[in-house]
Amino acid sequence: MTLFARLGLPQAWQARPRYTLLMVDWSDGESFIRLWQRWKEDPCRPDRLHVVALSASLVESSVLGSRLRALTPSSLHSLVDQLVAQWPLNLPGTHRLDFEELSVTLTIAVGPLAVTMPRLAVSADAIWAGEAAAVELPKVVSSESRSPTDRMLGLAVDQKEARHAVVVGAGIAGAGVAHALALRGWRVQVLDVTSRRQQEHGAHVAAALTPMVTRDDDIRARLSRAGSLRAQARWSQVSEDILWRCGALQLQRMSGRIVDLKAVLAGLSFPPEWVRFVEASEASDIAGLQLNRGGLFFPTAARLRPERLIETLLAVEGVERLEVHVERVDRVDGQWHVLDKHGKTCAAAPQLILAGALGTQDILQRSALLEPGARLSAMHALGGEITLLPESALSGGPRCIVSGDGYVLPALEGNCVVGSSYVHGAQCMAPSIAGGLGNIERAAGLLGQSQLPAKFNNFALDPLNGWAGWRAVLPGRLPFIGPLFNTQGLWVASG
Ligand SMILES: Cc1cc2nc3c(=O)[nH]c(=O)nc-3n(C[C@H](O)[C@H](O)[C@H](O)COP(=O)(O)OP(=O)(O)OC[C@H]3O[C@@H](n4cnc5c(N)ncnc54)[C@H](O)[C@@H]3O)c2cc1C
Predict the structure, then answer these.
(1) How far apart are CA 452 and CA 290, in angstroms?
(2) pLDDT for 233-284, tens place per residue?
(3) In 324-362, which positions are buried (b, 16+ CB within 10 angstroms) versus exposed (e)?
(4) Distance CA 411, CA 389 (A)
(5) 283 alpha-carbon distance from chain centroid
(6) How far apart (Å, rounded) are the C-alpha atoms in residues 159 and 311?
(7) From atom 20 of ligand 1, which residue's Cα is the shortest distance away?
(8) Do the domains 163-202+307-378+479-494 and 3-153 match in fold?
(9) What is the pLDDT of residues 374-391, one digit of tens each?
């Protein structure tokens, strides 16, 4: 029996605004292509089709393309081409691909079924376990008329106006959330103390978007990989001036906690397009500078300009910005009210996302929503600073990000960002001479120089050549992303 007959399609999806199918057996992807085509042709189709697929590994995109072209009629080849164009590298973890202006989404969890299945949290309308199902699963489950997303967000189908959210914080976290919601047709109000934001973050001219690897591919490594992949896919249209895939070298450390990066990578079997080990000579060729050690090279890592990226994300249709210092939040009649220090409601919506970094903790505290012992109550500030060095100090600067103990970014408008320090227990943060000198020393060490000519130390003396800020750090160095326990419609994206 075919996929359509067993799932009762297209009738099964016609009464629904959205339809989510869990495909336990991705196989060669033919079923997905045929399902997508059926969705396209159906005048009574749901607004959204979401396929969540499990696959032990991924074939290369060229192999996928040839196989699918052989299995499907030429009328479906344009869909095959779109799938191939977005097809991810064979990396364990979760990959998400969007088509048809975000109306069709494919989420693929890659890895052994015994690993991916228990980690999956999905509300599916139906489950497809393949023609010769090896896993005992019901053919069709769930007859609820609400979509998985709406169930998760606590929305009723007839509450279309409920697709309205307020986000507190216009940093990269808040802007990323607002952008993603707006692309899905949500109305989003983003609240921030704009003048404070400019003052506190304006001079953070460039940052590194790089994943990390660990020997056991722990949760931080997996999260950084998923985040990097998602950012690359979601922000693929952002101009190179803002997000430049220059690649990143993570050099073997010479002091401190020395880890044999070559051995770490050998145990992970990642594709070389994602990360590979390079010896010093190849690392030097990549960086365009003489380096005295090798390390890991991440070809898709990027240098980004945080504030410009945030502006771009918030410029999407459906996002409105409001200048407000949020004092506290309160739930009244199913809506989250956001109040200023005079107790005035500045915005209200059924869904509220707190993306205010350290400010999130304060807001929850003032709203009597921070439970003692909660993970968020352990969030603390970790200071740090970067220094701007003229590219001439670094022989023109590297062509890619060079990191290890600290980092040096490729030059931007004549200056390289070098950083960064970690300052525990500081009460206030501002560029300091000690911080600047530390950064200069780190940069010199990374680029194989014992020290830079003394004249460049003057750059540490001028506070205009640096930026200092805070990192909001949670236990385990993991962010808090998701619904706040014991609340409805209140989410946190901080840390
Ligand atoms: C020196 C240094 C260098 C760094 N370099 C890198 C790097 O190269 N790569 C990298 O990935 N990360 C880097 N980071 C970390 C990175 O800057 C942070 O992870 C990131 O900025 C966090 O974004 P966010 O949106 O969570 O928080 P933020 O950018 O801090 O944004 C939070 C926003 O919430 C607003 N807010 C807070 N409270 C309220 C309130 N009550 N009412 C209204 N608005 C409020 C604030 O005004 C702010 O605009 C660096 C950090 C430092 C300190």
Answers:
(1) 15
(2) 899 889 999 999 999 999 998 777 888 999 999 989 899 999 999 999 999 9
(3) bebbbbebeeebbbbbeeeeeebbbbbbbbbbbbbbbbe
(4) 9
(5) 27
(6) 30
(7) 172
(8) no
(9) 899 999 999 999 999 999
Q: Is 33 in the pocket of ligand 1 (CB under 6 A)?
A: no
Distance of alpha carbon 441 from alpha carbon 450, whole angstroms: 8
Q: Is the pLDDT of residue 156 over 80?
A: no
Give the separation between CA 72 and CA 310, rounded to whole angstroms: 42
Distance 437 CA to ligand 1 centre (A): 24
Calculate how far, in angstroms, residue 189's C-alpha sits from the geometric centre of ligand 1.
19
Give me the amino acid identity at 253. Answer: R
Question: By three-state DSSP, how is residue 461 classified?
Answer: helix
Angle, CA of 99, 169 and 202, to the nearest 5°: 100
Tokens for 264?
A: 């770490």
Q: Which numeric CATH code is attached to 215-301+380-473?
A: 3.30.9.10
Which one has a higher pLDDT value, 355 or 199? 355
* Centre of ligand 1 from the C-alpha of residue 208, in Å: 14
Q: Is the CB of 339 under 6 A from ligand 1?
A: no
Contact 212, 224 (CB under 8 A): yes
The chain-wide mean pLDDT, for the chain, equals 90
111 DSSP assignment: S
Q: How far is the CA of 206 from the centre of ligand 1 (A)?
A: 13
Q: Among residues of the chain, what percentage have pLDDT more than 70?
A: 94
The pLDDT-based confidence of 146 (bands split at 50, 70, 90) is very low
Cα Rg of the chain (Å, integer):
25
Q: Is the CB–ligand 1 distance for residue 419 below 6 Å?
A: yes
- Looking at residue 145, what is its pLDDT? 40
What residue spans define the domains of the chain? 3-153, 163-202+307-378+479-494, 215-301+380-473
Q: What integer pLDDT is reported at residue 456 of this predicted model?
A: 77
Residue listed under structure tokens 């989420």: 107
Q: Which two tokens stand for residue 176?
A: 């990323």
Digit-coded pLDDT (tens) for 67-83: 999 999 999 999 999 99
**Residue of 192, 198, 209, 321 to test ligand 1 pocket, by largest number of atoms within 8 Å of CB:** 192
> Which CATH number is associated with domain 163-202+307-378+479-494?
3.50.50.60
Topology of domain 3-153, CATH: Rossmann fold (3.40.50)
**Which pLDDT value is given to residue 365?**
96
How many angstroms is it from 267 CA to the middle of ligand 1?
34
* Mean pLDDT on 30-57: 96
